[in-house]
Amino acid sequence: MKWRRVSMWVLWPAFLASACAALVVFTLLDPRGLTIVGRPVEMSRQAFYTVAFFLLWAIAGVSSAITLYLAGGGAGPDGNDADDLP
Prior knowledge:
The chain has helices at 2-28, 45-70; strands spanning 35-36, 39-40. It is mainly α.
């Protein structure tokens, strides 16, 4: 049960952050004009945006996980775990 709660503490804020970042990136970036190592990207726009969204979500997820780890993993001010509270 605890892993579900912790995963939501990480994945939900990461999803919101990636959605906001995706709005900015997708507004400013057209995949048809994008080149990687001098070669044009040979993906459809929908495929590019899907891959980019999940990449942004992964980056935000790592950031949220590091934040949770540095915050003490959900321990309260008295040192008790959140699952131990009444």
